[in-house]
TrEMBL record, chain A:
Belongs to the sigma-70 factor family. ECF subfamily. This is Sigma-70 family RNA polymerase sigma factor. It holds the Pfam family Sigma70_r4_2. Keywords: DNA-binding, Sigma factor, Transcription, Transcription regulation. It comes from the Bacteria. Residues 9-75 form the RNA polymerase sigma-70 region domain. CDD domains: Sigma70_r4 (cd06171).
Automatic annotation (TrEMBL), chain B:
Keywords: Membrane, Transmembrane, Transmembrane helix. This is Anti-sigma factor. It comes from the Bacteria. The chain crosses the membrane at residues 70-91.
Amino acid sequence: MNQNVFIELINPFKDKVFRLAKRLLTSTEEAEDATQEVMVKLWNKKENLSDYNNVEAVAMTMTKNYCLDQLKSKRAGNLKIVHNNYTDREPLLDKKLEDSNSLEWVEKIINQLPEQLQILIQLRDVEQYEFEEIAKIVNMNETAIRVALSRARKKIRESMLNTHGYGIQ
Amino acid sequence: MEFNKIEDILEKYFQGETTIAEEKELKEYFSSPNVAQHLEQYKPMFGYFSQVKEQKSTQEIPLQTKKRNVAWLSIAASAVVLLGIGSYFYVSEKNTPPVVAQSELGTYDNPEEALAATQKALALLSSNVNVGIESVQYIKEYEESKNKIFKQ
C-alpha cells in the first residue's frame, strides 16, 4: 500500500477521528495530535489493514482508547490538583448563564457528561453511526448503548431546562 | 400537525429508540425556521450536533516513508559489505590451494586412465556449469515477473 492509497482510505473518516478526539480532549491542538498519532499507527500497520473488514471502526476504537489513555495520564499527573481546584459546579453554572452563544453552552453541558456518554453522543448524534457500528467501536452491546444514550440525552435536556428563560431568545 | 409527529419522534429519541432516519428528520426540523414554540428549547441541541459535524482536521499527516527507506538502505548496504568480505575470503581461499596442489597434479602414464580421469573431471565441471545456469534462469524468471508488475 502506498501513501496515496492510504490517504484515500483514511480520508472519509479522518475528520470523524479528529472530532471524537476533540470531544474527549477538548483542545484542538491535542485533538490534532491524537488524529496524527492514530493515523501514523494505522500507517505503520498498513500491511495488515486488509485483515480488518472495517478500518474505520478500528480507527475510531484506536482514537477512543488513545484519548482515554491521554486523559488518564493527564489526571495522574500534576494537572489533577489544578483540575480539582476548579471542579466545583457553581462557577460553571454562572458561566453558563453568561454564555450568549447557545451552541457553546450545549457543548459545555456535553463536556460535563462522563466520557463514555460523551463518546456515545459523539458517535450517534454527531457522526450518525448505526448502533451496530457503535457496538464494534466501544465494545458494548446494542441494548446497553441505547440505555446509556437515552441517559445522556436526558441529562442534556435536563441541564438545558434547568436554565430558566432559555429557549425564548 | 407536523409537530405531533416530531413530538413522538422526540419522545423516542430520549428513550434511545430512534433510527438514524428519524434522527435526521429531527435535525432537519430543528434547523428549519418554523419550529413550534414549545419545542424551541431543543433547537440548540440539534443545532450543535449539526455544527460540530462541520469541524475538520486541518493538519497534514506525516507518513514516515523516509525513515523506512533509510532502514532498507542500511540493510542493503550491510548486505553488500558482507558480500564483499565473503567474496574476498572466498577468492583468497581459492587462490591458496593451487600452490599446494601444484605439486600434486598427477600425470597418468596410461592413456585410458587419463581419458577416464579427464571425462570424470569434465563431467564434474559440466554439472557445476548447469547449476550455474539454473540459478541464472531463476533470476531471469524473477526479472520477467518483476517487469510484468512494474511496467516501466
